[in-house]
């Protein structure tokens, strides 16, 4: 049995409601799951439309403080257009689109400081 896919990636956040708003409203991700488990802990899963991989907005891993996730790459059709759209929504970028070893890329931050790359397909 071989590993076939990436199902979910844990994104460490300090405020799940703020993070949920950022990912669904600002980035346009769809809400996949929101459940309460354990002692009032919430399982919140969001994902780009149609993606097989989702992001889980987590607060319970001591070894994963907010801002500790860096370098997760999101594929986009047009890096410049996506950069312009997100910048207009107030999303902070480390740098504008530029040529990198993997092609045209730009890096942005979520409200907790986790770092994400947008890259051309």
Overview of this structure, please?
With 121 residues, this protein is an alpha/beta fold. The model has no long low-confidence stretch (mean pLDDT 96).
Through-space gap between termini: 29 Å
> Which oligomeric state applies?
single chain
Number of distinct beta strands: 8
Strands ordered across the widest β-sheet? 1-4-3-2
- Principal-axes geometry comes out as globular
Specify the helix fraction band. 10-25%
The string of secondary-structure elements, in order, is EHEEEEHEEE
Query: What portion of the residues fall into strands of 2 or more residues?
Result: 35-45%
Secondary-structure class: alpha/beta
Major β-sheet annotation: 4 strands, mixed
Radius of gyration: 15 Å
Number of helices: 2
Which stretches are poorly predicted, pLDDT < 50 over at least 5 residues?
none
Mean of the pLDDT scores? 96
Describe this structure in a few short sentences.
By secondary structure, the chain is an alpha/beta fold. Helix content is 17%, strand content 44%.
